[in-house]
Automatic annotation (TrEMBL):
UniProt keyword annotations, A-Z: FAD, Flavoprotein, Oxidoreductase
PANTHER family: ACYL-COA DEHYDROGENASE, ISOVALERYL-COA DEHYDROGENASE, MITOCHONDRIAL-RELATED
Protein name, as recorded: Unannotated protein
Pfam family, one: Acyl-CoA_dh_N
Domain Acyl-CoA dehydrogenase/oxidase C-terminal intervals: 200-348
Gene Ontology MF terms in the entry: acyl-CoA dehydrogenase activity; flavin adenine dinucleotide binding
InterPro entries according to UniProt: Acyl-CoA_DH_CS (IPR006089), Acyl-CoA_Oxase/DH_mid-dom (IPR006091), Acyl-CoA_Oxase/DH_mid-dom_sf (IPR046373), AcylCo_DH-like_C (IPR036250), AcylCo_DH/oxidase_C (IPR009075), AcylCoA_DH/ox_N (IPR013786), AcylCoA_DH/ox_N_sf (IPR037069), AcylCoA_DH/oxidase_NM_dom_sf (IPR009100)
UniProt key word Mitochondrion: no
Needed co-factor(s): FAD
Amino acid sequence: MIETGSPPRDLWLEAGRRGLLGLAVPLVYGGSEAEDWRFSAVLMEELAAVSAAIPSFLSIHFDVVAPYLIELTTDEQRERWLPRFCTGDLVTAIAMTESSGGSDLARIRTSAVRDGTDWILNGSKTFITNGGSADLVVVAARTNRTSGSKGITLFGVEAGMPGFSRGRNLDKVGQREADTAEIFFDDVRVPELNVIGQVDRGFQHMMRMLPQERLGAAVTSLAHARPILDLTLAYAKERRAFGTPIGAMQYNKFQLAELATMLDVSQSFVDACIDVHCAGVLSPADAAKAKWWCADVQNRVIDRCVQLHGGYGYMNEYRVARAWTDARVSKIWAGSNEIMKEIIGRDLGL
Ligand SMILES: Cc1cc2nc3c(=O)[nH]c(=O)nc-3n(C[C@H](O)[C@H](O)[C@H](O)COP(=O)(O)OP(=O)(O)OC[C@H]3O[C@@H](n4cnc5c(N)ncnc54)[C@H](O)[C@@H]3O)c2cc1C
């Protein structure tokens, strides 16, 4: 996958066969109708313990896009999309970010103009996970030029619609297994049947869904860092310098103690957020706290693990090196750390 920069369709189909893709989807559409979000959280943890990229591209589908297709769609859309969503025959993506800026979602420029019962979509999106391979992309487009955040609508753009095209697979420094692409809309005719949620309410729909995406990012950040700390502990017990294991040197012992503390203390907050989310009352500010903090902890832990590996920590054949490049994006995507602090600041009345 690293060489091709894109997960093969067989992987999606196998994930579908194993019931991983439709956890939140109602049974009637082929999903598992899981009792609550903890099932998704456990799946993300297990995947992140193996690799950072795999939960990224899978969870965009089963955890990020899923609520849009379950909660905002019509019966006809659910019947059309969800069964294949669960089997992996319909891979999905969500496209908010544009080249002119991703943080300020209210200013997106991709436009959709009504034409009879259809909408004509023009514009482009960038950095879209699964963008090169998705069969269905949830696209945020401006439908009302004068209404700012109140003039955005979500559309289901399907592969094969004339005028919908994809750019190259973007050359990332980490998570090279994931397909991240630009996508383009050139007079794409989207039928009214593919409007997702309410016209002009797309921004509000996204704001409602983003806390779950951010909590998922926090879960993944910690689950990705923990095995890297574990393997670094093993390394520090074996690797010797000056006739003694490096982990026995007080400086390194204290470093490792700090990393273990950071992960455990952060996990408590994330677990509390998961309970609150399952009760349906996770606030945007708490999701933002979990997301930026855990992204920071993940990067601090893994960076120090690289250091403890010495020169080997800089070699791609060592898992810790790959983890280091894979982790960096956590502080940028799904709302950067700075944007998370903006949200928290506003919640503090600032
Ligand atoms: C690998 C990868 C996968 C991604 N997948 C997706 C996807 O599937 N779908 C999707 O829609 N997007 C996706 N993104 C895009 C991602 O969400 C954006 O990159 C992110 O929101 C930041 O937007 P930007 O890159 O345009 O940076 P900008 O918005 O241009 O920000 C640049 C810098 O300015 C800072 N900044 C901006 N505003 C403020 C402020 N008010 N105060 C302080 N600092 C500020 C930012 O924090 C950042 O450091 C992905 C990105 C990457 C790298």
